Amino acid sequence: MDLDQLLSKHLTRYFDPGKTIPEETLQQLLRFLRSTPSSVNVQPNHFYVLATPEGKERLATNLGERFRDNAEKILNASHTIILTTRADLPDSHLEAVFDKERADGRFPDAAKQELWESMTRDFLSLRTYGYKDLNHWMEKQTYLAMGLTMMAAAELGVEATPLEGFDPTSVDKAFKIRESGRTTTVLLALGYPDPERVYTTPISRFDADQLFTFM
Ligand SMILES: Cc1cc2nc3c(=O)[nH]c(=O)nc-3n(C[C@H](O)[C@H](O)[C@H](O)COP(=O)(O)O)c2cc1C
Could you tell me the distance, in angstroms and rounded to a whole number, from the CA of residue 181 to the centre of ligand 1? Predict the structure, then answer.
């Protein structure tokens, strides 16, 4: 990955419909996505990986009336991932996280695991009853996973464009997402740019002195 090149680059709006991410590269990217961290290891996500024309078509035709512009991006992208997040956090989910941590041997001894579980429950109680932002907080974890995956995609030479332009009710319905206790947070289109339609103008960002305070 060439960081200097990345920092002056527009996100891809026009994908080349003739190019597909090689299976090995896709699997590597998904392994990376699976490995991304979340606060207290809450892992609130499920990812729908749309690889077939039917899957992409289903998403493209269910973005909602005002978001039709994004349909072409999805249809021309090699793959699009629907990143979904839990709408709530039932105890069964938490138990599943702890069971998996035990099975994976995350902590060297049972006492440490128990301490961790009680700290996690404490923190989640604070989010639920104190900050009252449990769902918003879980969606932040989703954005972190997406951001890291965008960087991993760049490393693999794959373009990754996040899409917030969609109606979550419509997408959830089309993929029966709410039936699993989750809702769509954001989409990530993946593929290769159409060389005829790459933006060549400079990107526009605030100057460094407006962004950074050194103390
Ligand atoms: C979280 C996120 C969501 C975005 N959603 C869309 C989208 O739905 N459709 C779209 O065309 N661009 C989308 N973009 C692209 C931004 O509009 C774009 O990155 C921004 O205007 C800066 O333009 P540049 O990447 O060309 O410099 C999204 C970008 C981010 C980071």
Answer: 28
